[in-house]
Amino acid sequence: MALAGAVRCWRLGAGPSSLQMQALSLHMSKTAMGASQKDFESAMNQVKLLKKDPGNEVKLKLYALYKQTTEGPCNTPRPGVFDLINKAKWDAWNALGNLPKETARQNYVDLVSDLSSSDSSSQVKPEADRKQPGYETLVVTSEDSITKIMMNRPAKKNALTIQMYREIMLALEAASKDDSTIIVLTGNGDYYSSGNDLMNFMNIPPGEMEKEAKNGAILLRDFVGCFIDFPKPLVAVINGPAIGISVTILGLFDLVYASDRATFHTPFTHLGQSPEGCSSYTFPKIMGQAKAAEMLMFGKKLTAREACAQGLVTEVFPDSTFQKEVWTRLKAYSKLPRNTLHISKQSIRNLEKEKLHAVNAEENSVLQERWLSDECINAVMSFLSRKAKL
Ligand SMILES: CCCCCC/C=C/C(=O)SCCNC(=O)CCNC(=O)[C@H](O)C(C)(C)COP(=O)(O)OP(=O)(O)OC[C@H]1O[C@@H](n2cnc3c(N)ncnc32)[C@H](O)[C@@H]1OP(=O)(O)O
Questions:
Q1: What is the mean pLDDT of residues 125-151?
Q2: Spacing, Cα 72 to ligand 1 middle (Å)
Q3: Res 388 pLDDT > 60
Q4: Across residues 155-159, what is the average pLDDT?
Q5: How far is Cα 246 from Cα 283, in angstroms, rounded to an integer?
Q6: What count of other Cβ atoms lies within 10 Å of the Cβ of residue 197?
Q7: How far out from the chain centre does Cα 19 lie?
Q8: Is the pLDDT of residue 25 over 50?
Q9: Which residues pair with 148 in a beta bridge?
Q10: Phi-psi region of 35 (alpha: psi -120 to 50; beta: other; left: phi over 0)
Q11: What whole-number distance in Å separates Cα of residue 124 and Cα of residue 139?
Q12: Which of 38, 199, 240, 384 is the most buried (most CB within 10 A)?
């Protein structure tokens, strides 16, 4: 078992780690002639290198086998009832009865060898191995109880196509049911997202405009609805500039971590459009009426630090250490008791859900009209003919 585990791990990684080599040599020597004193000492060193805590039950077993190997059968008085830890250790040792020292040593070495193998196989696998299949515009991975949904159109600044909205909804739906504790949305490349792909408005035959606007509003309602209803902690890892809908839905996230290179821009008026993502309700609540108006009506672009000062962003990190710091933090959070975390999220959010769905419906009905307006059509045409950029 241990040997098969060690060999399998080599195929997943670049090559055997020193831990895997030790596990393998330990396994080979013990099966050939029984564990020697040297094997025992090497196993004791290996225990210190384990990355995963084996849990109290295994630790007690290791302790008992160690004592039996070095001192023989338990020969001390049982600790008092209130000395709980020493009593548990004594019980474990005493339970080994008259087990010979050599057998205890062998069992100790075997146990450490198995622990090392499973410890090695739980080490980080390359992202390509963890990637979930079925997504063309996203990279979805799960590790350390975190499901990461990464928008993956870096050449187009992660502008959101119709397919991308649909895939994000599918990924959220799957993540709501998987065994992850936390869900992260982030972007690949220099942008978090430049918002709606303005090509979504192209190639619509004149007679189909109204129908397409209606379909767009339904898609947008469902997309935002997924964030309103999402049952687990949602974290936005804002790796670069964010525009439009990628900003407005942030009010529906539980944590927003931003690189100091990120900016937050909602230029709806410039585009002949109106706020969506429930921002007409969440932004005034988060930052107050005056600041929300400056962003949503007048298109003021905020730096990450300004967005943090106004409560839209949880914390800003230097770009040079952004990924390292954020993922260390999230890995620690992902070890919190999962069910309690989800229940707390629901207590915080559930009261607002009905209101948020009503706001979502209202925003989309206004937007559906806007998309048909001259102001919107001219703004989109201007961008697409490269006369205008934000
Ligand atoms: C179902 C419908 C739901 C609708 C929901 C309502 C949502 C509303 C919004 O999100 S409004 C916000 C819309 N976004 C924009 O208006 C941004 C437009 N893009 C830009 O202004 C610029 O591209 C930029 C500032 C993001 C980046 O500028 P720059 O650094 O100079 O790079 P490029 O412009 O050369 O971009 C590279 C490449 O990407 C294409 N691109 C970028 N963003 C978008 C976009 N939002 N839509 C379409 N295409 C985009 C850009 O055209 C370039 O393509 P090319 O290399 O020329 O083929």
A1: 88
A2: 73
A3: yes
A4: 98
A5: 14
A6: 20
A7: 28
A8: no
A9: 141, 184
A10: beta
A11: 17
A12: 240
313 closest CA partner among 192, 168, 181, 145: 192
Residue nearest to atom 58 of ligand 1 (CA): 156
Using N-to-C axis directions, what is the helix angle for 289-296 and 279-287, rounded to 10°? 130
- Per-residue tokens: 296: 């949503």
**pLDDT over 70 percentage in the chain:** 88
**Are the CB atoms for 278 and 356 separated by under 8 Å?**
yes
Pocket-forming residues, ligand 1, beta carbon under 6 Å: 156-157, 159, 194-200, 216, 219-220, 243-245, 271, 273, 276, 383, 389-390
Residue to probe by mutation, ligand 1, list 162, 192, 194, 248, most atoms within 8 Å of CB: 194
Cα dihedral sign for 214, 228, 302, 297?
A: positive
- Residues 66, 68, 70: CA angle, nearest 5 degrees: 65
Is the distance from CB of 29 to CB of 20 less than 8 angstroms?
no
Ligand 1 midpoint to CA 243 (Å) = 9
Residue of 201, 190, 292 lying closest to 247 (CA atoms) = 292
Which ipTM score applies to this complex?
Answer: 0.99
Q: Which is the closest atom of ligand 1 to the Cα of 219? A: 1
262 pLDDT exceeds 70? yes
In 3D space, the residue among 257, 266, 262, 265 whose CA is nearest the CA of residue 241 turns out to be: 262
- 290, with CB counted inside 10 A (0-12, 13-18, 19+), is exposed
Atom 36 (ligand 1): residue with closest C-alpha? 156
Cβ atoms within 10 Å of 135's Cβ, excluding its own: 19
pTM of the model: 0.73
Residue type, 157: K
H helices of 230-278, in order, are: 245-248
From the CA of 265, how far away is ligand 1's center (Å)?
Answer: 12
204 pLDDT higher than 90: no
Q: Look at residues 169, 379, 184 and name the one whose alpha carbon lies nearest to residue 267.
A: 379
312/255 Cα distance (integer angstroms) = 9
Q: Are 147 and 141 in contact (CB under 8 A)?
A: yes
DSSP state letter for 76: S
CA of 383 to the centre of ligand 1 (A): 8
Measure the CA–CA gap between 152 and 139, rounded to whole angstroms. Answer: 6
- Distance CA(358)–CA(364), nearest Å, equals 10
- pLDDT greater at residue 280 or residue 87: 280
